[in-house]
Amino acid sequence: MRTRFGAAALCAVTAFGCAGSAKQDRAAEMELRLIRSATTEITYGDGDGSVTLLVDPIVADQGTEEPIFFSNDKKIPMIPLPVDKHRLIGSIDAVLITHDHPDHFDKEAERILPKDTLIFCQPYDEEGLRKKGFTNLKVVVDEVSWRGIVISRFPASHYPGATGAPPFGESSSYLLRTKNDSMFITGDAILDEKLKASIEKSRPNVIVANTGECQFSKPNPVLAPGVTMTLTRGELKEMVQTWPGSTVVAVHMDAINHCVLTKSALRDAMAAEISAGRLLVPNEGEVAIPASVARP
Fold this sequence. Notes:
296 residues; Metallo-beta-lactamase, Chain A; 7-stranded mixed beta sheet; 15 strands; disordered C terminus
């Protein structure tokens, strides 16, 4: 069952306003639902004409996969999936994998996703996904069009000074555009000049922002402990202030062991932005963006 944000929260989206009768007619055109962590379900249209894209599928049962290295030893995901995984996979038309890390495409998703599923991916991940048996890959070098949706890719920095070299590899942000809507997905990125330029160029209605302040806590040869690999509270505040015409939807919290920022802590830290409708922090299973508030 889908849960929607309350009317007060929706009407507080000052950039878009409350849904009037004209907007209600278009209310089914775009919908964003948080599944868990960075996994979101984006649906365009309604009924038989709808198109559904699943982003970064993490569908394992709670506590059944190994933790991310160099952090605590809690098995992941740390919270339950709010939907039936098989029904979810069976209802989609395609998958977008922002980058092929285990907290964005887990082993369970690899196992149950049909190998001929249409998958949009960055060039860096093509070879690895083919080795996993997936045969229907659409590599997004710069831009591709699919069923009325234009998908554009922007290089992103997973951490300060990231070069795209192994073991992290590359990370990407994406813009999804239709005739009426635009949604920017940060992927795992920090708010450096690269990401700022991508958002400024895109000027989206909605920004899906991967936060969680992910970081390693143990000494390791990859990245110093405490260096954040996703957006911080401070960066989210800057994002909300810099692009007042975009509604920011914060995701990528509570499910993965190296994410230290919780939804509860973020709501406390950014209560004013949430009250103003500039920032949304949905729970798992909630529809965060109905189309009635997804455009000016």
